[in-house]
Write a structure and sequence with these properties.
The chain has 181 residues and is α/β, with parallel strands linked by helices. The chain is built from six helices and six strands, in the order E-H-E-H-E-H-E-H-E-H-E-H. The protein has a single domain (22-173), classed as 3-Layer(aba) Sandwich (Rossmann fold). It has a six-stranded parallel β-sheet with strand order 1-6-5-2-3-4, sandwiched between helices. Helix 5 links the parallel strand 5 (122-126) and strand 6. The longest helix is centred in the C-terminal third of the chain and has 17 residues, at 155-171. Magnesium ion binds at residues 43, 45-47, 126-128. Residues 43, 45-47, 126-128 line the site of magnesium ion (MG).
């Protein structure tokens, strides 16, 4: 038997996404059924668009329409300022929360309430382990990690992305495998 103080980092799930996919537009109903969710909280930077970009990622408008037609509730939860988030929300016809303070759980709770959903039937979709995924785990929603559309140039981001790589190694996170579902 191992001693009680033995620390096995793999058992700590706070940084582990439930699903890892490449782009937001890769998410389909099978993934949502697998997670048991009908509500998605959407990050903006490097999820809907590049970091500080304004162009929607390819196929996003059609994907949003498909999700809406399938009865999926969508709401944007971003850490960016409202002025940055609003144009995306308007273009896509979605409700939004700016200054979400991820990884704190409050923005997630507000997002879930905003579309009258439940945390257990909600997933966050975002590109950062230390904000989107950690916050999702802390607030009790499911978590879908995406590959960032384009890596940031800022030094602080470079460190963050290096740490994420470490987390990938620890959890043996691979891109989504069809056979898992
Ligand atoms: Mg992001």
């Amino acid at each position: 038997m191992r001693p009680p103080y033995f620390f096995e980092i793999g058992e700590i799930m706070l940084l582990k996404p439930h699903l890892k996919l490449n782009r937001i537009t890769d998410i389909n109903m099978r993934h949502l059924d697998y997670l048991g969710v009908d509500t998605l909280l959407l990050d903006v930077d490097n999820t809907l668009s590049t970091d500080h970009g304004t162009v929607l990622t390819k196929g996003l408008t059609e994907w949003i329409e498909r999700m809406k037609n399938d009865g999926i509730k969508l709401v944007i939860v971003s850490n960016a300022r409202k002025e940055r988030v609003r144009p995306f929300a308007e273009k896509l016809g979605l409700k939004f929360i700016g200054l979400g303070l991820k990884p704190l759980p409050f923005g997630y709770f507000r997002g879930v309430r905003y579309v009258s959903s439940k945390r257990r039937s909600t997933a966050i979709v975002g590109d950062q382990i230390f904000t989107d995924i950690l916050g999702g785990r802390l607030s009790g929603v499911k978590t879908i990690l995406l590959t960032p559309i384009k890596l940031e140039n800022k030094f602080s981001f470079k460190i963050r992305r290096k740490l994420e790589k470490l987390v990938f190694k620890i959890y043996k996170i691979k891109d989504f495998e069809e056979k898992n579902i």
